[in-house]
Amino acid sequence: MSPVAAAKYANVLYPIVNAAEIHGGALPTSELGVVALDDRTLEITLEAPTPFFLELLTHQTGLPVHRPSVEAHGPDFVRPGNMVSNGAYVLADFVPNAQVKLTKNPEFHAAEEVRIDTVYFYPTEDRSAALRRFQAGELHSNNDAPVEQVAWMKENLGARFRVAPYLGNYYYAVNTGKPPFDDPRVRMALSMAIDREFIAEEIWGGTMVAGYSFVPPGTANYGAPAIADYHDQGMIDREDAAVALLAEAGFGPDNPLAVEIRFNTSENHKNTALAIADMWQPLGVEVTLLNSDTATHYAILRDKGDFDVARAGWIADYNDPQNFLFMVESDNPGFNYANYANPEYDALMDRAAAETDLEVRARILFEAESLFMRDLPFIPLMYYGSLSLVSDKLEGWQDNIQNVHATRWMAIRE
Amino acid sequence: MTDSADAIAGRSLWADARRRLRANRAAMASAVLLAVIALACVVGPWLSPHGHDQVYRDYVKVPASLTPYPGAEAVEPALEKALRRARVEIEDWRVEDGRLRVVLIAERSIDPRLTRYLDRADLFADSVAVEQSEDGRRLVLEAAVSQQRFLFGTDANGRDLLTRTLIAGRISLMIGLLATGVALVIGVTYGAVAGYFGGRIDAVMMRLVDILYSLPFMFFVILLVVFFGRSVVLMFIAVGAIEWLDMARIVRGQTLAIKQQEYVQAAQALGVDSRGILRRHIVPNTLGPVAVFMTLLVPKVILLESFLSFLGLGVQEPMTSWGVLIAEGARNIQGAPWMLVYPSIFLAATLFCLNFIGDGLRDALDPKDR
Amino acid sequence: MLSYALRRLVGAIPTLFIIVTVAFFLIRVAPGGPFHLERPLDPQVMENLLKVYHLDKPLWQQYLLYLENLLRGDLGPSFIYRDFSVGDLLGSGLPVSLQLGGSALLLAFFLGTGLGSLAALYQNRPGDYGVMAVAMIGITIPNFVMAPVLTLVFALYLDWLPAGGWGEGALAHKLLPVFTLALPQIAVIARLTRGSMIEALRSNHVRTARAYGLPGHVVVIVHALRGALVPVVSYLGPAAAALITGSVVIETIFGIPGVGRYFVQGALNRDYTLVMGTVVMIAGFVVVFNLLVDLVYALIDPRVRYDR
Fold first, then answer.
1. β-strand partners of A210
2. Which of C164, C261, C268 sits opposite A97 (nearest CB)?
3. B87: containing domain
4. Does residue C290 sit within a domain?
5. Looking at residue C244, which CATH number applies to its domain?
6. Within an 8 Å CB–CB cutoff, is residue B335 touching chain A?
7. Do B260 and B228 sit in the same domain of this protein?
8. Are strands A258-264 and A286-292 parallel, antiparallel or unpaired?
9. Which of A171, B98, C61, C302 has the most CB atoms around it within 10 Å of its CB?
10. B residues 231-290 near A, CB within 8 Å?
């Protein structure tokens, strides 16, 4: 929590008493609401009842660090040989961009259950190259696969190519502060005209799922999310409704709406934007595309630069709808790309934060999400799917929504 | 041999060269082929039935084929897909003489406007409701099955690859020729001057080249791209501004050697001024390796542009270049190889032609080659 | 000659200084920073991060800080690879890239000049056409196409070589990357050699040598080749630069832990220190390499003089 440590995920643990103030430098770290009562008991005090706090602790910010090592080695405490692990594996070697090597930790409390002795992690940036290495038998698993070759992989790899739902949302942020995008009718029209099934199936090869809500279905502590009511309407009807909405807002053939879609460089983002531009054409919308590299793209979004519609994605840090809905709270400039400010929405989110009964809380969040889907500061497009290449020889790989696969549970079949 | 007699009759030297070039059959054939490709790229997209950015949602990544689409087996899935959201059941369908006849039934009265779903599909057009039962629950539609030819197949968005390849050629050729031209003019002048004058001038000029050389090319391009937005003009300025450095180096190297030749010393003794020597002796004699290097440069420029496209910094959509197409194709090698093969053939053919022309130029301009 | 070399080296220092300065300010001017990546950050987190890395100070102050550290040999921490300093990263990546690039350059030089000479000797006969056709392929096909194609053939279909990775420097892991990297340069050097060899073979001194009755291969190697190598040696500088650019693609596709990747990834991710470190390193390398090239010029062509 210390400002000097400048931890990127510090805000995940803000629910702890004084955490935000300490991180802002207003209080010393000793004021943090965490106390070790004795050698085996840790007491954490929270600002407000946070039903998903246990979930938060599973995030990497909740992992323990061996203090004497940090004191002895300083920043080098993460080097192989210095690093002390309480998990199933110990860091044996770390060559940047080459490999990370782990060996089995004999001190692990369930060491006899761990069946794989040595693990090598290789950074594979180029997914097509990774696919080739996987085919050549050099990799037992790869945590991503080239989306362009989905059809080929499904045909030739069978069960070795896995697609699983992933807790994330692929969306277009709309600059609600900039006319004409401050008109909710315009945003709704744009959203209705998008054929998400086509994008998910054809462009992303079925590795994404068409998304009509912001919170993905299956999120913990939540029921069915607030799905847009037009999700099962025919495309032509939706387009007609969209044209009508745009006409109401003052746009039509004699006053075409001009939209610029920004996206960061990637084949699929480009193909998605092209498809959506094509889908907005029948509405009489004139679309231009602007592609920039990732840093420029997010700099514009983060620093409140000028944009109309911009592509973004969000993978949840923890399994709770709040981790999606908090993004458009008005006091959250870092995440609120859309510049959305709705006091009603903020009020609902605050109420939900204070509510301890999970059922009631779920209903409040549902109301908030319904507001979201009515106002559409973000136009949700798809829910992420995780792609994995898993060898036949690898046992114990379970698909799960957070795409976490601990080697501790795996074994290699010869 | 190559002495002052040739220097005085400078004009006939070029005429000589032109004659030799014409006699070189490989070079002439390449020039013709190159002209054909260039013509195809300029005129082709206008003649093509497909727009270069026209998306066919039903024809995503279809292989190249001389026979028109759709094949007979593609009709039923397309029909089902088109009508999927319309909440109707297909009782029967038939295709005869390029016309589709489909019978639909549903729980409730069917809105005959759902012909628009059929029209939306790329396979069908001009659909009309032919018959409807009394209670509206049974509807018969007829539509024309539109034939499309995709000679090179389609890309990941369902756009015709042939048209895109041709239009990409426009950009690639333009970038190649113009950037090389820029590099040629700046590079030859700079290198010849530096090499000829030598000494301090050479040292300073080459120092500048060193500095510019060492600046990683990436920043320069990224920054230009970021400041001025992404335009094709910018692309060739950036690339040309990088490439002249190599040209200057080579010309300087050549000049250092040529400078010591007898005919240059003779000209100096005769009192010819520096500009004259540069223009008449140094530059024409460097043209041999320069011509060869130039014909290596155009391909290099085009490939450099493709490298930028690979990194995502190339030409913006919906414009495209061979580099972009090839980068896309390389990613799809195992699923849609035609996306790589056809643009590569065009690129390779163009580069082959340029190389033969370059060889021809070199042979023609080389005074020693008798 | 020695004094010339020394003068060049000393003269290179202000060059390096200018390069460092220009690069420093150029990279800072690009929008976005190392923390503007896919995952958004809480504003307080962002503020703390900027403070820790001194990115909140005015630009000239950051520049002076950087120079100070540079003189002490500290290239700074990497913003993206947060466990490592730039020195660590370059230290582990440089030997790899040198091996990769050095092997590729040598391969390109020897194979290129060899093939080019052969083509010149058998001018306009099948040998010539064969070599030139292969050269064409090398020039025409971009390396990011060649790499997957060769991998498919040699690693998947024939199963002779591994498909990727560095394997801690095993020879089998080096073959494909080095060859793919060198291929375009082999082609270019072959063509250059052929061109200048043809000229050299017709020149006076070669004819004289032949008239003396010297054996064929002596004529070719000792007399013709020396003169013919001038444009090739001129090209070595650009060749090295092309290898550096090409290594980015090769390292990415084959998963090789070299420095080329840092180059582009650093710029795209705005990892300022990494980018600066790479610039300094490459600038130094280029200056030294060009000096060597110029010295070799003088060695092979005694007509070349370096004026006062």
1. A382
2. C261
3. 72-145
4. yes
5. 1.10.3720.10
6. yes
7. yes
8. parallel
9. A171
10. none
pLDDT in tens, C214-259: 777 777 777 777 777 878 887 887 788 778 778 878 888 888 888 8
The number of angstroms, rounded, from the C-alpha of B55 to the middle of its chain's C-alpha atoms is 21
Residue B89 falls within a domain, yes or no? yes
Number of other residues whose CB lies within 10 A of the CB of residue A245 = 21
Q: Is residue C268 part of a domain?
A: yes
For residues B180 and B281, membership in a common domain is answered with: yes
* pLDDT digits 0-9 by tens, B201-244: 888 888 788 777 766 565 566 556 555 556 667 767 777 777 78
User: Which C residues in the span 47-66 are in contact with A, Cβ-Cβ below 8 Å?
Assistant: 48-49, 51-53
Residues B129 and B161 occupy one common structural domain? no
Q: Residue C102 is part of which domain span?
A: 86-300
Q: Rg for chain C (alpha carbons), in Å? A: 24
pTM check: above 0.90: no
Question: What SS3 state is found at A216?
Answer: coil
**Does residue C269 form part of some domain?**
yes
Task: Give the three-class secondary structure for A38.
Answer: strand
Same domain, residue pair B321 and B351 = yes
The three-state secondary structure class of C250 is helix
The CATH number for B85's domain is 3.30.1360
Total domains in chain B come to 2
Chains that touch C (3 or more CB pairs under 8 A): A, B
Predicted-complex ipTM score? 0.73
Does the distance separating the beta carbons of C142 and B352 come in below 8 Å?
no
Element (H, E) at A378: strand A378-390
Q: Write the pLDDT tens digit of every residue in B161-207.
A: 999 999 999 988 888 888 888 888 888 888 888 888 878 888 888 87
A11:C48 CB<8 A? no
Distance from CA of C19 to the nearest CA of A (A): 24
Distance CA C13, CA C207 (A): 46
Picking from B99, B129, B145, the residue at the C-terminal end of a domain is: B145
Q: Do A274 and B113 touch (CB under 8 A)?
A: no
Q: C145 and B288 in contact by Cβ < 8 A?
A: no
